[in-house]
Each structure stands twice: as structure tokens, then as C-alpha cells.
Amino acid sequence: MSHYKATKVVIITEKLILAKVTKLIEAAGATGYTITPAGGMGSRGVRSTNRAAVIDEFSNVKIEVITGDKQAANRIADEVAEQFFENYSGITYLEEVEILRPHKF
Amino acid sequence: MRDRTQGRRNRITMDLLIDFLSRLLTQFQSPSLAFLIGGIALAAAGSKLQIPDAIYKFCVFMLLMRIGLEGGMEIRDANLGEMLLPAAIAVVLGCAIVIVGRYTLAALPGVRTEDGIATAGLFGAVSASTLAAAIVMLEEQDVFYEAWVPALYPFMDIPALIVAILLANIHLARQKGGERERVRPAAIIAESLRGSALSALLLGLVLGLLTRPERVFEGFYDPLFRGFLSILMLTMGIEAWNRLNELRRVAHWYVVYSAIAPLAHGLIAFGLGYIAHVLTGFSPGGVILLAVIAGSSSDISGPPTLRAAIPSANPSAYIGSSTSVGTPVAIAVGIPLYIALAEAVFGL
User: Fold this and answer.
1) Interface of A with B (CB under 8 A)
2) What is residue B120's three-state secondary structure?
3) Which residues of chain A are within 8 Å of residue B246 when distances are taken between CB atoms?
4) What is the pLDDT of residue B29?
């Protein structure tokens, strides 16, 4: 099977704004994304993955989007940073990945 | 002659005070408080004990469903006209706490106005866990309260959050000099009602009112209520300690505000409740619960609502204030204080 180049956008941010971020991703033309719980340390403190988060919405999530369209990937990363990261905690980065079935992306 | 009267009066005051203090001391032995303080102590000692997220959420659901069901079943025969004055007091208090708190906090050094508004908003809003702890303590001592009193919760919670968001938008618009964003109270009300705590409470009320849930109530919710409350209290204690680190990074005035505000709010509500007692026969237990509701600060549903609506406010400031200081003070000092006060005032 041949491999194809694609771009993965990773966004780690607060669960509170998850719905807004996924809407933005869909609007940019991506066909799917994966969400996993996230924890760790950053400029706004430590987030745990398994301690009882009394406020669930403040726990963190990691959203991964893979798209064959580099422009769309850039757009997602830029828009998320611009719209949310002034007030909400989060980071975003791009990775080059190889995918198997290009029609899926 | 006058000296003797004076002396007697002093002695009576002393007796009252000693009586009050000994009652206060008994209240501290309540298991709910013990679990809260135990949680704080464990977390302070660096214990690895963790309460899983799902269990914590289930505890909150259990408590509110139980409170709702019982309220609903008893409201069937209640005269809801009696609820009008206490509900009006709840609305007025919810708004007043936020407005007074906003200007108090903003006047303190090192407090950003948005952070102060959000903090005042949480202290105006209501904590389900504090309410549940108070209900258990009243039941342990067979203090009667009207079944609809827990339903006063949204009457204070929602107006407080709306006022906080409104004040924040006015402040931010003034700062930017532009048009202020329109506040849509309907959206905030919907968001609050959809929160996990209020949804469970309201569903319980409706089910209790319209269906016959006596058997599931007596066989499941009621007997398990206290056990789940103890787990919830333990979690709140652990959370209080863990959030303290965040509070250390903001102005110390938040600590002062969050230690004084719950008691000040509770005592004002107690006074207003007393007026309702005189005017409409509001029960002493109801007065205590009204004081507890006013003295509590939201720790579950309020923070995300404010975080979404006032994103520029620093959550470390308002959540730290409410969870680390406000809630422990409201539960450990406030509830015993109001019960002891009611015993002194109403002679329970």
C-alpha cells in the first residue's frame, strides 16, 4: 500500500470550548477529528487527567485533525489561536504525517 | 441597685453566649463536616487517595435527585403561596450579593475588576453540596423546614449569574469604549437549568410532584443519601486544598473576601428570613436553609457558566476563592452558626 503525505493539526485546550473548536474545524473543511482527554503542565498550571475534576468543563482535551489540504490545516491552527488563546489556555501545532487511505481525509 | 441589674444582665448575656458556643461546638461533630475537614487534611498531607471523576458526579446527581424527589413529593400538599416572599428574598439577595461584592472587590488593591465581578458572581450563586450538607444536618436534628425550601436554589443562583455577566459586559464595554455586548438572559437561564446540578434537582422535583416515586425514594435515594454526601464532602475537601495553590498566585484580598463574605451573606439572609418568619410564618428550618443558600458559593455549575461568559476573568481567582475558602467556610462555620443562631433565636 502506498503512503500519502498529509498534515495533522493538534490542538490541546479546555474542554469548555470543545464545541466551538470542532465547529471551526468542520467549517474549515476537515472531514473528521479525534478527541482524547489530556493532562499536563503549561503556562496556566497543571491539569491532571484522572483526579476528580470537580468542574468537568475545565479539564483539557487533545483534538487531532488530519487533512490532506495544507491550507485548511494552517487555517484551523491560525483561527483557533486567534479566537480562543487570548482567554483560554491551549496550544496548537502542525505535524507532517503519512496516511494510508487518502479518500478518508 | 443599678449595679446589680447591670450584673444580672451581663450574666444573662454570658449564659446566652456560652450556650451558643457549646451548641456551635456540637455542630462541628457532624459527620459531613468531619469528612470535609478529613479531605482537606488528606490532601494537605499529600495523600494519594483519589475520588474518580465519575463517582464524584454520581454523588452530586444522587444528592440533588434525592432533594428534588423529596421536595416534589411534599410540595403536592404544600401551600405554594407561602413560597412567594422567601423566593423574592432569594432573588433580591442573589442580585445584591453580586452588586455589593463587585464594588467591594474592585475597591481592594490588586484585584482586577473582571476577576472581582466573577468572584462576586460565584458567591451570589448557590452550592448544591453546601445545601445538601445543611439538609442532612437539619434532618439529623429533626429540624422542620418547608419542603419547597430547596427549590429556592435557582431563584438565587440564576439571577446572581445573570447580574455578574451583565456587570462584566458593562465594565468591559466601558474599558474598550465600544458598544457593549448584548447580554441574553434567556441563554444564561437555559444554560444554568441545563447544568448537571439544577437538571437533577428539577427532574427530581417534577418526578416527585407528578409520579409516585415513594418506593425508589425510600429504597434507594433516601438511605444512600448520607453515604454519598460523605464522599462528596471528602472530594470537596481534597479539591479545596488542591485549588489553594492557584489562589496563592492572586491577590490575598480574595482570601479575606471569601472568608468573610459567606458568613456576612448568610447572616443577612438569616435576618431577612426572620422577617419572613414574622410576616408569613416561614419556618426556622427554612430560615436556616435560606441563610445556607445565601452563604454558599457555587462550585460546580457556576464556574463554567462564568468562564464561558466572562472569558477574560482569571478562573484561578474566582474558583480558588469559592472552592478553597468560600465553600469550606460556608459548610464548616456557616451551617453550625445558623443552626446555633436559630436555636438561640427561635428556641428550637
Assistant:
1) 16-17, 45, 50-58, 86-88
2) helix
3) 45
4) 76
- What is the chain B residue with the closest CA to A52? B53
φ, ψ for residue A40, nearest 5 deg: 150, -160
User: Could you tell me which chain B residue has the CA closest to the CA of A20?
Assistant: B308
Helix (H) or strand (E) holding B215: helix B214-216
- The stretch A60-82 carries a mean pLDDT of 93
Interface of B with A in 148-167 (CB under 8 A): none
In this prediction, the residues of chain B whose per-residue pLDDT falls under 70 are: 1-4, 27, 178-181
The domains of chain A, with CATH numbers, are 4-104 (3.30.70.120)
Q: Which domains does chain B have, with CATH numbers?
A: 28-346 (1.20.1530.20)
Helix (H, G, I), strand (E, B) or coil at A4: strand
Residue B19 is placed in which grid cell?
A: 450556650
Whether the model clears a pTM of 0.80, i.e. scores above it, the answer is yes
Asked if the Cβ–Cβ distance from B307 to A57 is below 8 Å, we say yes
Closest residue in A to B234 (Cα–Cα): A52
Contact across the interface for B300 and A54, Cβ inside 8 Å: yes
The neighbour count for residue B16, using CB atoms within 10 Å, is 11
Q: How confident is the model at residue A52 (pLDDT cuts 50, 70, 90)?
A: very low
Cell numbers for A81, please give them: 489561536
Reported ipTM: the value is: 0.71
Tell me what pLDDT residue B239 has: 87
Q: What is the DSSP string of B310-347?
A: STTS-HHHHHIIIIIIIHHHIIIIIHHHHHHHHHHHH-
3-state secondary structure of B290: helix
Determine the distance in angstroms separating the CA of B309 from the nearest CA of chain A, rounded to an integer: 11
Instruction: Give the per-residue pLDDT at A91.
Output: 92
Give the confidence band of A49 by pLDDT, cuts at 50, 70, 90. low
